[in-house]
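Marked as duplicate of an earlier ticket. Keeping the data here for the record.
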Amino acid sequence: MKRTKLTITLGSLTSFFLLFSLMVSGAWAGLVNLRISTQMPPNHHTVKALEIFKQEVEKNAAGRIKVSIHPAGQLFKGRDLPMAVGSGAVEMGDMVTPYLSGIFPEFELLDGPFMVDSRPLAENIFSGEIGEMLNKRIESLGMKVIFGHPYGYFSMYGNNKKVIKLPSDMEGMKIRAVGETQVLKAKAMGATPQTIPGSEQYMAYKRGVVDVGQSGPSSFVSRKLYEVFKYGTVVRDDLMIFWCNINSKVWKKLSDADKKIILEAGKKAAAYDWEATEKKENEANDFLPTKMNVYFPNAQELQEWKRAFAPVNKQLAENTGKRGLALYNAILKVRKEMGLK
């Protein structure tokens, strides 16, 4: 009798755990895991924007979607991200324009001097026909663009010799330049370009590897570059953009409701990052003059910078063929329509 009861009890427990296992495995089978890979450090405002995205998606998906953020290149390095996301090696990636220009050379024009240099212009470009054209190129890699958001502005120039007011003031100097656009800018000013990775800037400047350091104003603050330069000149000729993309196959498997949740979360993340970027830039404007002699070119001087850099954009367009010329002319058209010189 006791043995019969024990057998029944064990059988009941076995059935229960089997049923429970099936229920759990079924639930987890329906769970969508979205890993987001980014090159930026955890405390950077672009990563904070991804955290907003994560919170919004998980809150509104009611347990159907789990988002995890992997900063500082933990999963993939920046330039590997387009192929990693496109192949499905990772579900999502946050990639700045230069990572894409290695595959699509015409994207280099988006970082050309005074091509995309303000929030209103960027929002106009990326939400219109140009944005559609760029999105199709990205989609050809097996990715869908969820949202775009700002990294910040280039350029600020630091040196220890004199106040730089015009591009010609850097003639004959050696300047940090990373990528084709910055190399062409250096040559347009009569300067000699020298490649220095972002993480190596501080020590390179301290040792005097170059005469002029080049980065963004917010990077001069975060990397404490003001400690190694006496003079700084803020030009802000380029607004760099991040593209948060998802693997196309992953996207197609999502329900229409979840797609809507993800796109809405992207809008909120982008809105946060635009405000955060403007705040960082304003803070840099206030902080840097307390640490170094900072010069902001006036309107007339900025026209000189634009004239000096104009050949750079033409060269970039010619170097990237028909697509580059089409993008170049399209951006100039939008600038003209907005009354931007």
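See parent ticket for discussion. The two ends are 95 Å apart (CA to CA).
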